User: What shape does this take?
Amino acid sequence: MIVATTENIAGYRIKETKGQVFGVVVRSRGLGGNIVAALRSIMGGEITEYTQLVEETRRHAIDRMVQNAQAMGADAVAMMRFDSSEMGNTMTEVVAYGTAVTLVPAQ
Assistant: This one.
């Protein structure tokens, strides 16, 4: 499965547009992680506990989006984007979305 942030995918042309696909994940850091992150925020710099949480959440959202695209019969997702928001003080929502398409080699 090709996942691209671009409208066109090099070496291919879009044969069919299957429709919109997305993957949504809502994650929460545990109490222990929040305490460690709060202590790190006092010192400044990167809070690796949250960085890791966001990276894992984005990967999971992409995986769900790809599963949805495959269920629609697509072999690629074009114009993939992320959106994220916080829910309360401890939860992060991440959405990966794009357009499911089928491709053929460019001629």
Q: What stands out?
A: The CA atoms of residues 1 and 76 lie 5 Å apart. Helices lie at 31-43, 48-71.
